[in-house]
Design brief:
The protein has 260 residues and is of the alpha/beta class. It has seven helices and 13 strands. The strands form three sheets. It has a nine-stranded mixed beta sheet with strand order 4-1-5-6-13-12-11-8-9, sandwiched between helices. A two-stranded antiparallel sheet has the order 2-3. The chain has a two-stranded antiparallel ribbon with strand order 7-10. α2 crosses α3. The relative contact order is 0.16.
């Protein structure tokens, strides 16, 4: 009963009449690796479904989940809709997932309002930047042709580059004596304008792309652009255990504060 309960935001397969299974139905799911990453820290992983939709029943809200759970992980996945950060798609078809944006922005807001920690992974970093008023590069290769490749579809989570920690940041404190680390890179969108209130904790040293952010203050809000749940130590990538433990420590502290 003492185990932490960590919510994970849902990914979406929207209703598709051409799909041969669950035809015309919306699917909400969690990627296995991120759930296993949370459980690796001894916490219970709980997917949080979007309560909005045609088949909604009852009066359950995201605020109910924020009160019940101890923390939130915003997982990776689909692109953000450019309209979520006040832009129009640069190319036809670059529409992202507006429904998921609205759901995750409301979800993050509910957990932050409840004083519960929020940790973003890849899309989760981009979502938090947008939620706090920042903008994104819709496509790094198009808008930052000087940048290195941050996504190689054929390699996916076996595509790597270095990140450089910002000296004095909380992230750097978790890795004393380490200035750079090897991480996976599976994204083609990235922070363009950093949201007010967020600080940078890591960048790609080759092109300056922001790789980790944090919101200073009493409430834990942090995110990384890489996927810690995909890392494997035999590949020489960053040991993400300190990041997970820091988040879970914040969740346990929040539980203590919020328990009557």
């Amino acid at each position: 009963m003492d185990r932490l309960k960590i919510g994970i935001s849902a990914c979406f397969f929207h209703a598709d009449p051409a799909r041969t299974i669950f035809t015309g139905k919306t699917l909400q799911y969690v990627e296995q690796s991120v759930a296993h990453w949370v459980m690796a820290g001894g916490a219970l992983a709980v997917m949080i479904p979007n309560p909005q939709g045609d088949t909604r029943r009852g009066d359950v809200t995201l605020e109910h989940y924020a009160q019940w759970l101890d923390g939130l992980v915003l997982e990776g996945g689909s692109d953000l809709w450019p309209g979520s950060y006040r832009e129009t798609p640069l190319q036809e078809g670059w529409n992202g997932d507006r429904i998921r944006d609205d759901y995750e922005i409301a979800l993050a807001s509910a957990f932050i309002a409840a004083g519960k920690p929020v940790f973003g992974v890849c899309r989760g970093l981009q979502l938090l930047n947008v939620a706090f008023g920042g903008t994104l590069h819709q496509d790094i290769a198009t808008q930052r042709p000087d940048a290195i490749a941050h996504r190689e579809a054929a390699l996916y989570d076996r595509h790597f580059h270095d990140v450089e920690f910002v000296a004095g940041s909380r992230l750097a404190q978790l890795y004393p004596g380490v200035a750079r680390a090897k991480v996976n890179s599976v994204h083609h969108q990235a922070i363009k304008d950093l949201a007010s209130g967020l600080v940078v904790e890591a960048r790609c040293p080759d092109d300056g792309v922001i790789e980790a952010v944090r919101r200073p203050g009493a409430s834990f809000v942090a995110a990384v652009q890489w996927h810690p749940e995909f890392h494997r130590q035999e590949l020489g990538t960053l040991d993400d255990a300190p990041i997970l433990q820091d988040f879970l420590d914040a969740a346990r502290a929040a539980r203590t504060r919020c328990t009557p």
